[in-house]
Amino acid sequence: MKPSMKRKITQTGIIHRPLPIETEYSLETLAKKKQILSSRKLFSSKQKVCLDFEHQGVGDFTISDQGEIKLPSPVVMPHWPAGAPDDGDYTNFGNVLISAALENEDWSDFNRMRIQVFPDFPGVTNPYLMISFKNEGTVKVPDIYGREGVHGVNLINHEWNDVIFEIEGLPRDRMTEISISYYLNGPERLTAGTMELYINEIKLEQIIEPEVSKGWVPQDNTLIYSHNGYSKDMPKVAFCANQLDTSTFTIHEKQTNNVVFTGKSYQNKTETGNFFILDFSELQIIGEYYLKLADMQSEIFQIGTSEVVWESSIWKSLNFIFCERCGCPIYGKHTTCHADIIAEHDEKQLSFNGGWHDAGDVSQQLVQTAEVTMALYEMATSLSEKDEMLKMRLLEEGEWGLDFILKTRFGDGFRATSAGMTRWTDGLVGGMDDAIARVHNHAYENFYCAGIEAYIGSKITDNLTMKNHLLRIAEEDLLFAIEELEKHGTGQKPIFWEHTYQTSESLYYATASWAASMVYELTNKEKYAEKAANWLDLMLEAQEKTGIKDNKTDELYKGFFYRDKSRNVIQHFNHQAREHLYLMALEAALNSQPEHTEKQTWLQSVEIYGDYLKKVTRFTKPYPLIPAGLYKKDEYLDEASFHLQHLLIDERAIEEYQLQFEQGIKINEEIALRKFPIWFSFRGNNAILLSAGKAASIAGKVLKDKELLNIAEGQLQWVIGMNPFGQSMMHGEGYRYAQQYSVLNGEITGEIPVGMETFRNEDAPYWPEFNNATYKEVWVGNAGKWMSIVADLYKITGKS
Question: How far apart, in whole angstroms, are the C-alpha atoms of residue 761 and residue 662?
């Protein structure tokens, strides 16, 4: 790790304060260097240019003595906004909004917007500005889900902010409205009673070389590579899309600038386009390098062990997780929060704060916190002795999550499971802004938590009291789950907003089998081994073993899973993603019952799944992305499954499903392969690809298969810059990272968003500069999945 990074970690008290926000390589910093060709002012306080704005919502709208737009408001309101739930579930106190009608204006000659804005929000950690557009041209904006044409910006309080964002990808041939607003996100302890926003200029600009935001073809004269670098013995490629006069490229050592490798690029036409590939896999000397091809030059990247390449990303992921703590004061983010989220059961109450906020909206999900907790223990226990400082800090953060798992357990099968927030609360129990946490006795949550409790218990070596307690409650929770399963079967579902809502029958059995194996390893009670094997058999009834034939190549695709043993609907993930649980169940059974009569069957299931990953990844080359998978043409006809998988949809989703299916690669008349999921309102694929990456790393460990481990590592590379836009999606790591949708906490070093989406019904990556949920919203679960993959790479390939 670089000395500068070590110094920053030390200055935070080993991540007990947030790491500083890195701006040197951010897109916002790079944007200010782009040449402006022309501009048009829509509003100017100095030149008296003004759109005809109208005010809506909370607060007021005036023009200040300096000619600036002034939008004052209270911090909170004494009631919820019109249309909000009576109990305030998942709502804030409304917003302050001004809008201006546009006369079907054609903005096609402009590709960037610039706004000068000053937030005077006393005590507010993260003033947040929303800019929205309406277009009535060829492509309507917003889309039917209200995602497109909405941009959110984190502002610096008490100073003028130069807000710049590109609109190249925004349909803008008949613009009919622009609006600007800010949220009333509730009272933090430091907030005052009122806040004000000032705007002194709004203008359109035309710039040279706007960012590419859609498709597989990167910008001209751009090298696509892994920003962090490459593990020394894995394939190492970079690539570009433009035709070149030279095919010779060179790799240079950072310190001396000496050429250490010379190679020839070669042309490769793939399903994603025509690329020039720069392969330097032969270079395996540990060090820091940069790449040159013609007039193009990369930034610095590393070659080394997994520990060398990914260590800084672990510290930054840890920083993000720490900054998302709920119920804990985080310097510069918030004071102790959400003490008045109350869970009630059996005439008892608990304060549902703790763990980590789920996302940018600071909601809370038990399962999300539990998964992140397990990942922290996975990462900590994969480290060598020389990484003691990182190991101990990971364990400390894991103990914070573990405390929440224990805290939210009532001890009779019921657990406090989630709360919809999207606001700060005053912390005083009994106020109108209190939130009610959901409480359930669901078999699935108890299975999953039992497995996580048992796993963590098996890793604790220095606290016998905690270890024994986890052993006891893991067994209890497993028995609670079994009791509910026997009553209700796998059809027992939580409410709509729970993160386990989309769980299929086959994934249910995978989770139950894994949990039983974990408890069996702690207790040595044969009845749990039998349960694990029986549930694994039920899970495997939903695995494709015969194979789906590709009519073009006669290739057989098998090893993937269906939602249940009827095999009518293939298992997909479009938002939440837990594909790795299938492989976790198989790995746990193989480890805990190595002499079982079904061992070879289990191994074969891992092998055919691994073979499936190897076959489908060729469809996204040269990118390392694992595709979303195979889809049946008529899956939408299974209405019950369809509405479990896809949230907040209406009848239009049926037509859209068919349109998106047609955009896939036809395997045969009934099956298509999609690179990105078929999805609707909820979009973003980082959790999906990281979950699949974790499945690949588990299969790679079980089979000792280097190719599968490379596929797993490839998902990290996609996130960190090896994507069509050459952008890192981990803020502060790699290069060309952008602001994300982190509404209440603001930008956090190490944050990872939900992930890239697609435009409408297409099957190509879409990554506009616009920040909006769900695709750009920061998501703590992705940091956990990131660590979980890196932990496997450390265990297998990371040692020097």
Answer: 9
Quote the tokens at residue 678: 């078929």
Give strand pairing partners of 548. Answer: 557
How far the first Cα of the chain sits from its last, in Å, is: 15
DSSP string covering 21-34: PP-TTBHHHHHTTS
Alpha-helix runs per DSSP H in 620-758:
639-645, 652-663, 686-703, 706-719
Number of alpha helices (DSSP H) and beta strands (DSSP E) in the chain: 16, 33
Specify whether the CB–CB gap between 757 and 340 falls below 8 A. Answer: no
Let me know: does 326 contact 15? Beta carbons within 8 Å: no
pLDDT, one tens digit per residue, over 194-240 is 999 999 999 999 999 999 999 999 999 999 999 999 999 999 999 99
d(CA 535, CA 550): 31
Closest by alpha carbon to 542, among 582, 596, 496, 599?
582
Place of tokens 């409650």: 473
Beta bridge partners of 269: 274
Give the pair of three-digit tokens for residue 149: 């044409």
Integer angstrom CA distances of residue 629 from 614, 616, 667, 684, 719: 12, 7, 11, 15, 19
Pairing of strands 229-231, 161-166: unpaired
* DSSP H or E run through 563: none
Beta strands in 5-93 (DSSP E): 36-44, 53-57, 62-63, 69-74
pLDDT in tens, 363-389: 999 999 999 999 999 999 999 888 999
The SS3 assignment for 269 reads strand
SS3 516: helix
- State which H helix or E strand residue 517 sits in: helix 505-523
AA letter at 407: K
Say which residues have a Cβ less than 8 Å from residue 569's Cβ, sequence separation at least 6. 562, 563, 632, 635, 638, 641
pLDDT below 70 — which residues of the chain?
797-800
Q: Residue 560 and residue 543: Cα distance in Å, rounded? A: 6
Buried b / exposed e over 380-396, threshold 16 CB at 10 Å, is bbbbeeebeebbebbbb
Domains recognised in the chain with CATH numbers: 26-207 (2.60.120.260), 233-304 (2.60.40.10), 308-797 (1.50.10.10)
Residue 541: CA count within 13 A, CB half-sphere? 13
Interacting residues of 690 by C-beta distance below 8 A, sequence separation 6+: 577, 715, 719, 782, 785, 786, 789
